[in-house]
Specification:
With about 80 residues, the chain is α+β, with helices and mostly antiparallel strands. It has a single domain, classed as Arc Repressor Mutant, subunit A, CATH 1.10.10. The protein contains four helices and three strands, in the order H-E-H-H-E-E-H. It has helices at about 5-15, 30-40, 45-50, 70-75, and strands spanning about 30, 60, 65-70. Strands 1-3-2 form a three-stranded antiparallel sheet. The N and C termini lie far apart (about 45 Å). The relative contact order is 0.15.
Length: about 80
């Protein structure tokens, strides 16, 4: 297989991977949908963690739950 063929195959595989869309607000907030997608879990798991005081730090803004982007990344890395 030539280098060009190999690169074409890699590009094709990368294009077929479903990457979650993570929406980060200008002030670095992430909603529950994006946070769950980033962590690869369901929104319900995020809600369960919140009710038990587990998971990444979160806050409510105008009745909506948000996560701090850097806090979410730290949680994913396993930082305390």
């Amino acid at each position: 297989m030539s280098n060009t063929q190999f690169n074409t195959q890699i590009a094709s595989l990368e294009a077929s991977v479903d990457r979650p869309r993570i929406r980060v607000t200008p002030d670095n907030r992430v909603d529950t949908n994006s946070a769950a997608a980033f962590l690869g879990i369901k929104k319900k798991t995020m809600a369960n963690w919140r009710s038990r005081g587990e998971g990444p730090p979160w806050r409510k803004v105008a009745g909506l739950v948000f996560y701090d982007w850097s806090g979410l990344q730290a949680f994913a890395r396993g930082d305390d």
